[in-house]
Amino acid sequence: MANNSVGNTGRVLWAGLRALLVLTVVCGVLYPLAVTGIAQLAFPGKANGSEIESGGRVVGSELIGQTYNLPLKDGEETAAPDLKWFQPRPSNGLGTNSVNTRYQLILSGATNRSGDNEDLITWVKDAKAAVIKDNSTASYTVKPSDVPADAVTSSGSGLDPHISPAYAKLQVHRIAEKNHLTVARVDELVADHTDGRVLGFIGEPRVNVLKLNIALKELPRG
């Protein structure tokens, strides 16, 4: 009886081991290779992270936002924005105690602060004042009522690569002045890079900041 019990246990263990090996090969090797191969053949751009190239090198992904700042100076904790470029929305908070202030992928997530949180209110007020100051020029003054919500608040992930057309248009006069372009030309650039609703009714119109800045960089001057 004991020998039969040991033999049955051995057969069960061997069957389990064979199943483990087969499933490991099928699910852990063959399936991932098949999915990767199909994705590379059918959707190579998306499979590789929707990379965007400029000047012959990859400069980012159309799915992930990034900052456009001046080089960090000695003693500075946060670099100042480079105002010759279109700026993205804040990345998960506006202060040093926020979750993510520099579009760091490892820190993706929301601040989880309520609308009446004192820190959040202070960050939004400070951000609004900065937006008004940065985007007002000698010939154009930004009014508080002109500042859209996405100019002073982050997205749920803190990594949104898009801004609203309203925020892009708010920056037009500054961009024109800093880059010695006409307002009409920059307006046209924003319009050309504004994506509509998906299928005409899903989501909101949006502007990919990286694509817009690449187009700005490649724009003929003179």
Unreliable segments of 5+ consecutive residues: 93-100
Order of helices and strands: HHEEHEHHHEEH
Which percent range fits the helix content? 40-55%
Strand order of the largest sheet: 3-5-4
The number of distinct helices, counting runs of at least 4 residues, comes to 7
- What's the average pLDDT? 86
Structural class: mainly alpha
Ends distance: 96 Å
Kindly state the number of beta strands: 5
Could you characterize the architecture of this molecule?
This protein is mainly alpha-helical. The protein contains seven helices and five strands. It has helices at residues 2-42, 44-47, 118-135, 165-170, 172-178, 183-192, 209-217; strands at residues 51-54, 57-61, 162-163, 194-195, 206-208. The strands form two sheets. A three-stranded antiparallel β-sheet has the order 3-5-4. A hairpin with a 2-residue loop joins strand 1 and strand 2 (57-61). Mean pLDDT is 86; it is low at 93-100.
